[in-house]
Give the backbone structure.
Amino acid sequence: MTKAALAALLCACAFAAQAADPAPAAPADKPAAKAPTAQQSKMKSCNTQAEGKKGDDRKAFMKECLSAKGSDATSTAATPQQSRMKECNTQADGKKGDDRKAFMKECLAKKA
């Protein structure tokens, strides 16, 4: 065989092997689906409530529903740490530098 014929044969074999083995499929040990985010849950809820609405009426409803504060009280209420931080910041008014740093450390360490 000539070199050209041998090269053509090798190329044909490589091409055939690649065509026979398409891109590998997704791995079987794929991680489980993640839990929906708060925004995704809100979207699902609003979509359910918007059934029957069409056009501009639906668009207006979805805008209002999605922009409304969550019914979750935890999303708007301050945590105890946030409340303590706010209170300590108010009390630390006028203090600066190391004095303020020491005061804040002591104030935040107290149990409210």
